UniProtKB/TrEMBL annotation:
<dbReference type="GO" id="GO:0009264">
    <property type="term" value="P:deoxyribonucleotide catabolic process"/>
</dbReference>
<protein>
    <recommendedName>
        <fullName>Deoxyribose-phosphate aldolase</fullName>
        <ecNumber>4.1.2.4</ecNumber>
    </recommendedName>
</protein>
<keyword id="KW-0704">Schiff base</keyword>
<feature type="region of interest" description="Disordered">
    <location>
        <begin position="1"/>
        <end position="27"/>
    </location>
</feature>
<dbReference type="GO" id="GO:0005737">
    <property type="term" value="C:cytoplasm"/>
</dbReference>
<keyword id="KW-0963">Cytoplasm</keyword>
<feature type="compositionally biased region" description="Basic and acidic residues">
    <location>
        <begin position="1"/>
        <end position="11"/>
    </location>
</feature>
<comment type="pathway">
    <text>Carbohydrate degradation; 2-deoxy-D-ribose 1-phosphate degradation; D-glyceraldehyde 3-phosphate and acetaldehyde from 2-deoxy-alpha-D-ribose 1-phosphate: step 2/2.</text>
</comment>
<dbReference type="InterPro" id="IPR002915">
    <property type="entry name" value="DeoC/FbaB/LacD_aldolase"/>
</dbReference>
<dbReference type="InterPro" id="IPR011343">
    <property type="entry name" value="DeoC"/>
</dbReference>
<dbReference type="Pfam" id="PF01791">
    <property type="entry name" value="DeoC"/>
</dbReference>
<comment type="similarity">
    <text>Belongs to the DeoC/FbaB aldolase family. DeoC type 2 subfamily.</text>
</comment>
<dbReference type="InterPro" id="IPR013785">
    <property type="entry name" value="Aldolase_TIM"/>
</dbReference>
<keyword id="KW-0456">Lyase</keyword>
<dbReference type="GO" id="GO:0016052">
    <property type="term" value="P:carbohydrate catabolic process"/>
</dbReference>
<dbReference type="GO" id="GO:0004139">
    <property type="term" value="F:deoxyribose-phosphate aldolase activity"/>
</dbReference>
């Protein structure tokens, strides 16, 4: 990355231009400023206490809860990252992404004029082309994991080629994974250079930097890694791959939100946030929406700046919406994803 913090971005073909509403300026990053985070301290017990109060200080019930859950669906990166993924499964998932709720529920909610749809569909690079085809005309972007997901331990040249491949297939967003060893060893220059190279390889596709926070051991490491990824040009910072022993937690998300807030104060750039892994229930979705509203404000309740990486979460939200409409709980098997 040049000394002035700018990057030379490769322009993707017109057909791959993201159909996003994000009018925010892309994060071109800054030079590496170790002094922005090196002395940072995180009080773990205080972070845990703050996180624990999020769902006790604010109560959302009845029609307001239904509205929040519909909002959560519009912020969702509906995901399939299984070893047995097929184009057929991806096509069925994309159909669900277009219409996440049954028609009778949409009608009961009075949303026929503007039916909700998910924020994006997230798949492996080889499944990007089927997803792009299945979502044509929907306005739903396709996100692809890349860079040796989930471990991220393949050679850097190979990881960059994987980004190029996914963008060439039509991916609008790239979810990269960092080398955790750079964080654990405190090698901030290496982490910065890695993310900056990936940012350049993305071209016009948005970059989400997965920090794999469950592997970073301390909340202070989480804060520092967040700051370096944003300085290197990440448009979003993301908690987890969903494959770690510990994935998204509220204390970790709180620390990352505080890093986003600090970066905004220092640079004027709004960086997006994506929790992923372990968010399975409507109650989980509500907790993270409350976190975003209280810590970052209403701008982070839009898909330009907030995404929830999930798969089974959608089924539980639809189940809760059905309960709101009918007064009855149905079996989860009635709300299949694909």
């Amino acid at each position: 990355m040049p000394a002035d913090g700018s990057t030379e971005r490769k322009t993707a073909p017109a057909s791959n231009t993201p159909p996003l509403s994000n009018a925010l300026k892309r994060n071109d990053g800054t030079p590496l400023h170790v002094d922005w985070f090196e002395g940072a301290q995180v009080n773990t017990s205080a972070a845990e206490r703050r996180a624990a109060t999020l769902t006790t200080r604010r109560t959302v019930k009845k029609e307001y809860q239904a509205a929040w859950l519909v909002k959560a669906v519009t912020l969702m990166d509906l995901t399939t990252l299984a070893g047995d993924d097929t184009p057929g499964r991806v096509q069925r998932l994309c159909a669900k992404a277009r219409r996440p709720f049954r028609e009778d529920l949409v009608e009961a909610l009075g949303l026929q004029a503007n039916p909700p749809k998910v924020g994006a569909v997230c798949v492996y690079p080889t499944m990007v082309a089927p997803a792009v085809k299945a979502l044509e005309g929907s306005g739903i972007p396709v996100a692809s994991v890349a860079t040796g997901f989930p471990a991220g331990l393949t050679p850097l040249k190979q990881r960059l080629e994987e980004i190029h491949y996914a963008v060439g297939e039509g991916a609008h967003e790239i979810d990269i994974v960092i080398t955790r060893a750079h964080v654990l060893n405190g090698d901030w220059q290496a982490l910065y250079d890695e993310v900056a190279a990936m940012r350049e390889a993305c071209g016009e596709a948005h970059l989400k930097a997965i920090l794999a926070t469950g592997d970073l051991k301390t909340l202070r490491n989480v804060y520092k890694a967040s700051m370096v990824a944003m300085q290197a040009g990440a448009d979003f910072i993301k908690t987890s791959t969903g494959k770690e022993d510990v994935n998204a937690t509220l204390p970790v998300s709180l620390v990352m939100c505080r890093a986003i807030r600090d970066y905004l104060a220092l640079t004027g750039f709004k960086i997006g946030f994506k929790p992923a892994g372990g968010l399975r229930t409507a109650k989980d979705a509500m907790a993270w929406l409350i976190l975003m509203k209280e810590e970052l404000g209403n701008d982070w309740l839009e898909p330009d700046l907030f995404r929830i990486g999930a798969s089974s979460l959608l089924a539980d939200i639809e189940r809760q919406i059905e309960h709101y409409v009918t007064g009855r709980y149905s079996s989860t098997i009635r709300h299949a994803l694909a």
